[in-house]
Amino acid sequence: PPLQITLQFLALVVLIYLLSTLLWRAFAARAGVHRSLYESVIDTGLVSISKYAPGKVWGLLARGGLKQREFKVNMGTILVSALEQGYLLLYGFVTGLAVLLYPVLQLSIAVYTGLVLVCVLLFSGLVRQAANIARLYYARLPVLSWSFLFTLGLAYFVLWLLNGSALLVLGQTFDSVTANNSAALAGYFILSIAIGWLVIFVPGGIGVREGVFVYFVKDLVSIQDALILASLHRGLVTMFDLCFGSISLACTFYH
């Protein structure tokens, strides 16, 4: 893609990772795992590179391990990390479906926004129950308030919308990406990312995400355009992940 579009895309990726870092830090703090901003950035970097290892559990093991210049794996921290990642993944499906259903239901923005808020409220209760179950195995896990989970859910919703928007930034170079199909492309892409996460033995969901996306949008754009668009996104994000993750690894070993 042209340099200007590439820079716009990378700026959006940086924003996505920054928001991810802040949300992880907020969730961890409420769950009794206190992370400095520096440690939280390192956590995000370790997750970004470890997802390319088969199994997808390495990010959970690594995140939260760096503390006061030492790296230690703590089961309580791993449990908190798993809860946060599960909540984030849940909103991948919620956001993708919400984006896809908006033009189909043809509701006013106010009514649809209210419907989304009700869904966020319900899912906040679901995650609160999951945290209560987790407390049976990790007694030091504090009670997560409904209001906190609701606010966090809204932030995750925005985070996933940014992920969909990143694809549309790259889509500016394609004539087949128009105002009429951009929302559907973004929604399907968000869902394809979430589905790729579920295939735990495929590093980074490579191939799965792209295949699912192409299948979903084959009636919206040509298969060639869909494959190129998904591959461009994958290539740029992978380069960013490897650079960010390598720096985070170096900082971890340095400490």
Spell out the blueprint of helices and strands.
Layout: H1 3-30, H2 37-50, H3 58-62, E1 66-67, E2 70-71, H4 75-105, H5 109-134, H6 146-170, H7 182-198, H8 208-217, H9 223-254
Antiparallel strand pairs: 1-2
Helix pairs in contact: 1-2, 1-6, 2-9, 4-5, 4-6, 4-7, 5-6, 6-7, 7-8, 8-9
Short overview:
The protein is mostly helical and 255 residues long. It has helices at 3-30, 37-50, 58-62, 75-105, 109-134, 146-170, 182-198, 208-217, 223-254, and strands spanning 66-67, 70-71. The protein contains 9 helices and 2 strands.
Main attributes of the structure:
single chain, about 260 residues, mainly alpha, two-stranded antiparallel ribbon, 2 strands, globular
SSE arrangement, N to C: HHHEEHHHHHH
Mean pLDDT: 88
Low-confidence stretches: none
Strand tally: 2
Distance between the termini: 38 Å
Main beta-sheet annotation: 2 strands, antiparallel
Q: Spatial order of the strands in the main sheet?
A: 1-2
| Count of alpha/pi helices | 9
Beta fraction of the residues? under 5%
Shape: globular
How much helical structure, as a percent, in the residues?
A: over 70%
* Rg, alpha carbons: 19 Å
Structural class by helix and strand composition? mainly alpha
